[in-house]
Amino acid sequence: MKKTFPLKKKAPAEHPPYLSELEIRSLSRRLRFDSKSLIRERIEYVRSAPDPAKVVRLIETTRQILFPQYWTFPDSPSGPPPKKAALALEAFYHLSSVQITSSLAHDCTPPQRFCASCLDRGHQYAADFLKSLPQTKTLLLKDIQAAYEGDPAAKSFTEIIVSYPGFFAVMVYRIAHTLQRMSIPLLPRLMTEYAHSQTGIDIHPGARIGEYFFIDHGTGVVIGETTEIGNRVRIYQGVTLGALSLPPGAGDLYRHKKRHPTIEDDVIIYANATILGGETVIGKRSIIGGNVWLTDSVPPDTKVILKTQDLIYLPNPDQPEL
Questions:
Q1: 205 near 187, Cβ under 8 Å?
Q2: What pLDDT, on a 0 to 100 scale, did the predictor assign at position 99?
Q3: How far apart are CA 150 and CA 249, in angstroms?
Q4: Which residues lie closer than 8 Å to 260 by C-beta, 6 or more apart?
Q5: Which of 296, 293, 297, 254 minimizes the C-alpha distance to 272?
């Protein structure tokens, strides 16, 4: 008779989940991470990585520094505004340096948690990140202005800053893009995926987006890694700026090539439009109508819309007469 034991200490009396000792050993052997399986399955042993909770805190701290009149936290430093600002920047520097160093250590060779080089570069990149915040704020103020001018429902800049999901997603993207340009792994993507989870707006930190950018409503927007967007571009909910599908096994071949479209200055893209392909260019001042599907370029000053649908109006027999 096979020796068995319960997986849980308090298993239900009627039908306890039992496994044989042989089955447990077999599962353990199949799940064990050895060097051969790592190479075969291309799974990386995580030596170091940013802490997701600390990444969220870094986003919140950055937002607090950029717009201190709107956000404070229970552990905010006390004292006069200049002292509070200085202490907040110091806390930001220490928080960002640890997460940046963790990101760099993930790709460190040979494997080690925090080598001297990772520590040194982590502190240097954190200082550069801190110095970049004034430029990031300048870009964000232009994005706020674009939102205010493009949306009559916006009653104030404050409303946009504190409540618009599109602005939050763009703010996190601009922060993450700075780190992406420093070639820091993992951390930028964790940031934008947090914004994605909060807003439904998926912007890859590698995308290049110009000034005065506005995403209205925003749910379902996708902007791929190699997308290039010019100045004063406005897009609506459900827009996809994506890549054409690849044949099986072609990921490595296209990994560092342009796969997503280019959107030039002053373009408007309405809801649920899909624009695909690295060679697709939407020319300046063009308008792409809702639900349009494009894989070809559009010249400047062009309006692309679907042919008017044939709508059928039928009486509703279930509607009671008034």
A1: no
A2: 95
A3: 43
A4: 207, 223, 224, 225, 226, 227, 228, 241, 242, 243, 276, 277, 278
A5: 293
Kindly state the tokens that stand for 300. 């400047």
3-state secondary structure of 122: helix
- Decide if 139 contacts 168 (C-beta within 8 A): no
Q: How far is CA 85 from the centre of its chain?
A: 28
Distance CA 24, CA 30 (A): 10
Residue 23 CA to residue 1 CA, distance in Å, equals 14
Range 193-209 average pLDDT = 98
Question: pLDDT at residue 39 above 90?
Answer: no
Classify residue 179 by burial, with Cβ atoms within 10 Å: 0-12, 13-18, 19+: buried
Nearest alpha carbon to residue 126 among 107, 103, 158: 103
Q: Name the token pair of 71.
A: 């956000």
Statement: residue 192 has pLDDT above 50 = yes
State the pLDDT confidence band at 108, using cuts at 50, 70 and 90. Answer: confident
Does the structure show a pLDDT above 90 at 107?
no
Q: Is the peptide bond before 110 cis (omega within 30 degrees of 0)?
A: yes
Closest CA to 242 of 257, 225, 265: 225
What is the reported pTM? Answer: 0.83
Phi, psi of 139 (to 5 degrees): -65, -40
Which pLDDT does position 194 carry in this prediction? 98
Cis check for the bond before 16: say yes or no (omega within 30 of 0). no
Q: What's the pLDDT tens digit per position in 211-266?
A: 999 999 999 999 999 999 999 999 999 999 999 987 787 667 778 889 999 999 99
Helix (H, G, I), strand (E, B) or coil at 222: strand
- How far apart, in whole angstroms, are the C-alpha atoms of residue 254 and residue 17? 46
Among 210, 190, 265, 275, residue whose Cα is nearest residue 238: 275
Q: How many C-beta atoms lie closer than 10 Å to residue 104's C-beta? A: 25
Residue type at 54?
A: K
